[in-house]
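Here is the promised in-class demo. Please do not try to memorize the tokens; focus on the logic of going from shape to residues.
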């Protein structure tokens, strides 16, 4: 036996045979091939003797159909291969090749020849006569064979999606035709990415599971999460779909236009799409509506005070109807990419009259939910994030009423999540020093600072960071327990192996920046041409490369708890010191990469949804079942304590605080509230989280009976009517998802098991 490496770098065994093998791996019996340069007159005589004509010899195609033998097909194929090798065949060359093939077909003494045998004969002719062209022919042939295998895999996946569905992303309803189409295209795009973008080492790393490249189906096409600058797009009007939109002159129109902008722009990316400080965004249009309505009522004869009250009430109604319209649109109209875009809005800092009205109206609409009368439930989108500043929202402060409305909404619906701007840490420090908010993109991603004049570092003490209008180009996650297990099995230093995989991710990010930089602004006109992105006033034919300098690329981490368990058999709750050391090492390396490469890298606590089950399978395949590491069908998300830990919410906050400042590229902290809509308890824990500088999520298990409308926490059977026809909403990771809808779920089985096991989360 002898070994070789195939194109993907994996070992393939070959056995010795009494045949001549082409370098493609196929074989032809030795007695069927004449390796001497053919005598043309002899071959002509043989052809005449054997009557090798198109009417008697057939080629059997791959699909089983027959086609008459034709030398023109050979001439066409070898001529293309020669051209790829920068060689031009003469007529005599082509005749020699055809004669070689014809000679050996005659020797086979068959009336039907398979297409595989034909390829082998042509390749053998070239190998014997023109080796340089043989290599070109072989590479192209292998290229086509690879495509056959790839498309077969895509076909198998398409059948699964069509008839079974897909639960990899809970935001995508795979029962819909449009989603099925998108998922099938994504499978093809993922395979194309692996074939044309990854090298052998990277393929091996993702195949084994040491790293995970998120969203392979979209990474070559566009960018990831973003903080879209809706305000800049709206001001003065803009063009969308070759139609000019004037800037809205009223609040109701502003809601409609913003909704259209969000749906159109979010379709041209993947990941979270955030409209930051929406209260401040909408307030100018609310004031326009007030002025218009106030003038109308004054003209109708109302006195000043009554006209003002009526106009304000109209604004309030427009706010509520506008937010309700967003909830309808964002939860029922799938984007062109086939899913419901992950839309987030942040609010709470606005202290002016119409700004406060906006936030309170949004919270009211979300808390009341959507649905039939007496059978309403909260929607999943937009995800609401409350921007908390104790100097504005503390008791007795100007926005304390807004804070209380937020608490009331959180205790009923889990949203809003809470982002501290007056506590400790990176996000709060940017706000306190520069007055700039870093709103999360999607469920947890945060941008690294980019300064107006200095870039990565401030030019001077007056330079300020820009966050709104920026984006991420994707995340690649390290599977830390796998890397640790590999190092131990191979008797290598863990950090040496870790650095190897970090370098792989680094090079992938560099190539992604370079690849995306060649894209034209026309791929997302609202972002790159109409100001949705910072500096996004390019021409449609301009390359987007200048705008990538401030885009962030993420190094993700998963299963930190399992890493600690593998190291010394203790969980993060019991120990955690090794986990901290590892995170410090990764941060140091990322900082070095950032300085050397000039790109904005960041460390990200990965919110594994489908990945938390896949990684267990990958670990088991390589290293088996290890107690508290791979003995459950899921691994822990990012730096979080294991969901089965019997700890209090306060203990969980304290435990996870140790890792908080080590993952500034993406993080969220959440605890399970084993309460019955207890306002004081929710308020106490949220305020504690705000002091600690957290981005905090309230976690409940919301349950709604679809038959009688009864609702309570965590029920599986309605105690009022006995129905099992329930809708249940659980926190997926940093966001909410349906864990049950009419008896079904969009969540994978391993995620459902994780939800069922939750004690601390």
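The designed amino acids, position by position:
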């Amino acid at each position: 036996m002898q070994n070789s490496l195939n194109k993907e770098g994996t070992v393939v065994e070959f056995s010795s045979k009494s045949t001549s093998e082409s370098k493609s791996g196929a074989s032809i019996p030795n007695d069927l091939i004449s390796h001497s340069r053919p005598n043309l007159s002899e071959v002509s005589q043989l052809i005449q003797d054997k009557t090798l004509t198109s009417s008697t010899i057939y080629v059997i195609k791959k699909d089983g159909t027959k086609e008459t033998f034709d030398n023109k097909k050979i001439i066409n194929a070898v001529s293309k291969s020669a051209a790829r090798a920068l060689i031009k065949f003469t007529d005599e060359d082509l005749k020699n090749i055809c004669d070689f093939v014809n000679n050996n077909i005659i020797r086979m003494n068959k009336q039907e020849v398979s297409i595989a045998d034909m390829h082998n004969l042509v390749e053998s002719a070239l190998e014997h006569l023109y080796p340089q062209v043989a290599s070109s022919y072989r590479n192209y042939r292998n290229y086509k064979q690879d495509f056959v295998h790839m498309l077969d895999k895509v076909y198998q996946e398409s059948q699964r999606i069509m008839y079974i569905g897909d639960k990899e992303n809970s935001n995508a309803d795979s029962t819909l035709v449009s989603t099925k189409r998108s998922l099938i295209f994504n499978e093809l795009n993922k395979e194309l990415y692996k074939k044309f973008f990854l090298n052998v080492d990277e393929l091996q790393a993702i195949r084994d599971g040491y790293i995970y490249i998120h969203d392979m189906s979209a990474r070559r096409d566009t960018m990831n999460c973003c903080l879209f600058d809706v305000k800049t797009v709206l001001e003065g009007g803009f063009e969308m779909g070759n139609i000019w939109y004037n800037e809205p002159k009223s609040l109701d129109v502003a809601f409609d236009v913003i909704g259209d902008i969000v749906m159109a722009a979010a379709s041209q990316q993947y990941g979270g799409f955030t409209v930051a400080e929406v209260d401040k965004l909408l307030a100018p249009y609310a004031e326009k509506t007030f002025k218009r309505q106030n003038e109308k009522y004054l003209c109708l004869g109302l006195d000043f005070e009554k006209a003002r009250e009526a106009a304000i009430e109209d604004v309030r109604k427009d706010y509520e109807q506008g937010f309700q319209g967003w909830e309808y649109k964002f939860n029922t109209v799938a984007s062109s990419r086939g899913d419901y875009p992950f839309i987030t809005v942040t609010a709470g800092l606005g202290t002016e009259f119409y700004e406060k009205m906006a936030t309170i109206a949004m919270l009211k609409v979300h808390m009341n939910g959507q649905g039939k009368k007496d059978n309403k439930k909260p929607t999943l989108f937009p995800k609401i994030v409350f921007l908390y500043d104790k100097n504005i929202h503390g008791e007795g402060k100007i926005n304390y009423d807004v804070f209380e409305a937020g608490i009331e909404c959180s205790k009923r619906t889990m949203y809003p999540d809470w982002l501290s701007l007056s506590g400790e840490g990176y996000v709060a420090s940017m706000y306190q020093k520069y007055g700039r908010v870093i709103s999360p993109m999607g469920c947890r991603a945060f941008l690294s600072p980019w300064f107006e004049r200095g870039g990565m570092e401030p030019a001077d003490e007056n330079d300020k960071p820009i966050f709104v209008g920026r984006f991420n180009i994707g995340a690649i996650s390290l599977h830390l327990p796998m890397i640790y297990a590999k190092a131990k099995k191979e008797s290598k230093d863990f950090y040496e192996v870790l650095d190897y995989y970090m370098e792989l991710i680094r090079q992938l990010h560099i190539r992604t920046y370079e690849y995306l930089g060649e894209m034209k602004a026309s791929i997302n006109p609202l972002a790159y041409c109409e100001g949705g992105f910072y500096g996004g006033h390019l021409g449609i034919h301009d390359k987007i490369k200048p705008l990538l300098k401030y885009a962030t690329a993420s190094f993700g981490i998963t299963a930190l708890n399992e890493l600690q368990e593998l190291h010394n058999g203790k969980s993060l709750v019991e120990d955690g010191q090794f986990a901290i050391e590892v995170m410090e090492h990764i941060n140091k390396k990322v900082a070095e990469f950032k300085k050397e490469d000039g790109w904005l890298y960041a460390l990200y606590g990965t919110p594994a949804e489908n990945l938390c089950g896949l990684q267990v399978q990958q670990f088991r395949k390589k290293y088996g079942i290890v107690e508290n590491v791979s003995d459950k069908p899921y691994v822990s998300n990012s730096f979080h304590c294991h969901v089965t830990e019997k700890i209090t919410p306060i203990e969980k906050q304290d435990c996870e605080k140790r890792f908080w400042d080590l993952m500034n590229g993406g993080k969220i902290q959440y605890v399970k509230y084993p309460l019955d809509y207890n306002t004081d308890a929710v308020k106490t824990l949220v305020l504690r989280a705000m002091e600690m500088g957290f981005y905090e999520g309230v976690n409940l298990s919301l349950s709604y009976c679809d038959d009688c409308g009864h609702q309570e926490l965590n029920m599986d059977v309605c105690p009022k009517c006995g129905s099992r026809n329930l809708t249940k909403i659980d926190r997926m990771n940093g966001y909410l998802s349906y864990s049950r809808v009419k008896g079904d779920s969009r969540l994978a089985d391993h995620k459902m098991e994780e939800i069922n096991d939750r004690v601390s989360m």
